[in-house]
């Protein structure tokens, strides 16, 4: 494959890791951070691929800057952020599509704990777009013997899988922090996936996407790894640490903290039952203890599976 020019927007843990994967495959990678020397305009000017890995709070401000910059008419925008916009509850790809007009937008998501990928451990991911040619181009850029990339035609489903599992990862951390055992964890993840599918299908995503790498795959990785920041938030809440203290010590962003409130807002307006996410919301705003959240979930009215 001919070398491609990539602009990676956001030099945090995930942006740097994705930049390294592409550079390792011989592509020309230019990394932009708001603290760096190179301007965003210079970084994106001749890029064939613009890859955004800024955390959710940066997506709207950065996308609105990119909208006003000259970029190639054939550029492809790749979004790797896992979050929801607090203003509109929309996913990052919606904001990016607005900013780049009719250029293709590709969503990249999967079970991808960056520290494992940095160590050269094998991993797989998904690139999804309604423009399948664009997804295949991005697949070619990132694929290697250590990083297996699948294409998918359901960008919303792929994006929601990666985003909603962060809420479940907080719950999974609580489950492990309280030492509730393997049965409880399996029940939590299974019912958590049902919750993700309930709201995801209402949103317009395809149910089967949630059983793939970006849904179930990322749920398993994030809910079982102390490397996950979202899992760490839940685990430490169960160990009686306060949220501000946990977040102050956390390495990087735990998107699930903000996603939970946005998700619950949408679920309320759409009248969708999200019992696990609801308890995570109460825990995060400090109005319930981890043990009380467990009791509330176990004490719900009996119902068919
Ligand atoms: N780390 C991982 O394993 C994975 C992370 N992700 C997702 O990728 C996204 C980024 O995660 P990660 O790299 O770990 O997080 P980090 O906290 O390490 O990095 C966040 C990045 O966002 C940038 N940023 C935040 N706010 C703004 C803003 N207002 N304007 C410009 N840039 C901003 C930061 O810039 P600055 O450095 O200038 O502050 C930084 O580059 C998240 O949505 C996460 O869920 C997805 C898969 C794996
Ligand atoms: O999304 C991730 C792995 O796929 C990273 O998880 P955390 O953001 O919880 O660290």
What does the secondary structure layout of this molecule look like, with pairings?
Elements: E1 5-9, H1 13-24, E2 28-32, H2 40-44, E3 49-52, H3 56-67, E4 76-79, H4 92-100, E5 105-109, H5 114-118, E6 123-128, H6 132-142, E7 147-152, H7 155-177, H8 182-203, H9 213-223, H10 229-238, H11 243-249, H12 256-270, H13 275-284, H14 290-298
Parallel strand pairs: 1-2, 1-3, 3-4, 4-5, 6-7
Antiparallel strand pairs: 5-6
Helix pairs in contact: 3-4, 7-8, 7-9, 7-10, 7-12, 7-13, 12-13, 13-14
Bound molecules: NADPH dihydro-nicotinamide-adenine-dinucleotide phosphate (NDP) and 1,3-dihydroxyacetonephosphate.
1,3-dihydroxyacetonephosphate is lined by residues 82, 111-113, 166, 169, 218, 221-222, 228-230, 254-255.
> Number of helical runs?
14
Counting DSSP E segments of at least 2 residues, the number of strands comes to 7
Rough shape? Answer: globular
- What is the domain tally? 2
Secondary-structure class: alpha/beta
The ordered H/E elements are EHEHEHEHEHEHEHHHHHHHH
CATH class identity of the largest domain = Alpha Beta
Largest sheet, in brief, is: 7 strands, mixed
Hetero ligands: NADPH dihydro-nicotinamide-adenine-dinucleotide phosphate, 1,3-dihydroxyacetonephosphate
**Beta fraction of the residues?**
5-15%
Low-confidence stretches: none
What is the CATH topology classification name of the largest domain?
Answer: Rossmann fold
What is the CATH homology-level superfamily of the largest domain?
Answer: NAD(P)-binding Rossmann-like Domain
Rg is 19 Å
Helix content: 40-55%
Arithmetic mean of pLDDT: 98
Main location: cytoplasm
Binding site for NADPH: 14, 34-35, 82, 114, 229, 255
GO molecular function, one term: NAD binding
GO biological process, one term: glycerol-3-phosphate biosynthetic process
